[in-house]
Design a protein that fits this description.
The protein is α+β, with helices and mostly antiparallel strands and about 325 residues long. It is built from eight helices and 16 strands. It has helices spanning about 20-30, 45-60, 65-70, 115-120, 125-150, 235-240, 295-310, 315; strands at about 15, 35-40, 80, 100-105, 170-175, 180, 185-190, 200-205, 210-215, 220, 230-235, 250-255, 260, 265-270, 280, 295. The strands form four sheets. It has an eight-stranded mixed sheet with strand order 1-2-11-8-14-5-4-3. A four-stranded antiparallel sheet has the order 7-12-9-10, with no helix packed on it. The longest helix is centred in the middle third of the chain and has 27 residues, at about 125-150. It is globular. The termini are far apart.
Length: about 325
């Protein structure tokens, strides 16, 4: 059970317009790997209210059959709707955890012909595309600050992650409310690190439950802060930076003794470069020996997808 004395004071808030923003980012990402950001169009109450309304329209307005039929995008990758239990972290029966969440994934490079009619006709396509552009803009700003913090060539990261070039994913998550007799344990989504470059997270309500593991190994609960965006380092950037930047273990937790787990909504933008991008720490720190062998972003993505969905994940999506 989490220590109730732990607070979210480990996580700093960074104003992207501050002249000290890159310095603060470096401090955060080499210690906790996560920070709140302000000064971004995505980090406003008005924008987040619109995203929450869209999420509710999709998850509550469409039938289970309609949602289950929404698989689309680039063949061979998980795209579109994923129901509860689709993702898993843990390789054995002892470590496997069922996840009580449903998701809608929208990926880079989709053409109008790849969008399902249901999303086009309902108007949700236009809304999701707008949100994705705003999220990508925020990612560009954070990656530009990261370049400055690491003294990289300007554009080294940001250009690779441009919406027209990258392999990023925009995701809406819905955690349905659950009574005690509908669940097992206290985990709504198990402990994991993300496998992209950086992850941009909007907590769209006050349901709570998000926790990250701080440098002392303690689980710290993170609450929604008005007019902020949470951004954390993911595995690809940790690997790219020779582990100078820290990928943040996180989970969604709820007290098992609570009679009702409240409904919960989030939005995530997983920023990732094109599949052909070579992830090699020598590009960032040429004088340091590699802690990991170089790998293409596409191969790394495939490895991580197979860990989560199993080796037959391509068959699972039809």
């Amino acid at each position: 059970m989490p220590d109730s004395t732990i607070t979210q004071s480990d996580v700093i808030t960074i104003d992207v317009t501050s002249p000290y923003a890159s310095q603060q980012l470096l401090e955060a990402y080499t210690t906790t790997g996560i920070a709140y950001f302000t000064g971004l169009p995505i980090a406003t109450e008005a924008f987040q209210a619109r995203v929450l309304n869209t999420a509710r329209r999709f998850f509550l307005g469409f039938t289970a059959e309609q949602k289950a039929a929404l698989r689309f995008g680039v063949p061979g990758y998980i795209r579109g709707y994923s129901g509860p239990g689709s993702e898993q972290y843990g390789d054995t029966a002892d470590t496997y955890q069922e996840h009580y969440v449903e998701s809608l994934d929208i990926v880079s490079g989709m053409t109008i012909s790849e969008w399902p009619d249901l999303l086009v006709d309902s108007g949700l396509m236009d809304e999701l595309e707008q949100y994705r552009r705003v999220a990508a803009q925020a990612a560009t700003i954070i990656l530009t600050l990261t370049e400055k913090a690491l003294k990289l060539t300007p554009g080294f990261l940001a250009t690779k992650h441009a919406l027209s070039r990258g392999n990023s994913t925009f995701r809406l998550n819905h955690y349905p409310s659950m009574m005690q007799n509908q669940r097992k344990g206290s985990i709504r989504f198990g402990e994991h690190t993300d496998f992209d470059t950086i992850s941009l997270l909007l907590l769209l309500d006050d349901a709570g439950g998000l926790q990250f593991q701080n440098p002392r190994g303690e689980w710290c609960s993170l609450k929604r802060k008005p007019n902020t965006l949470l951004v954390h380092v993911a595995d690809m950037l940790a690997r790219w930076s020779n582990e100078r930047l820290v990928a943040t273990p996180h989970r969604v937790y709820a007290e098992d003794q609570d009679d009702l787990w409240p409904e919960r909504y989030t939005m995530i933008f997983f920023a990732a470069p094109p599949s052909t991008t070579w992830v090699d720490s020598k590009d960032l720190f040429p004088d340091e020996p590699n802690k990991y062998p170089p790998v293409s972003a596409g191969d790394y993505l495939k490895q991580r997808l197979e860990q989560i969905y199993g080796s037959s994940y391509r068959e699972k999506i039809g």
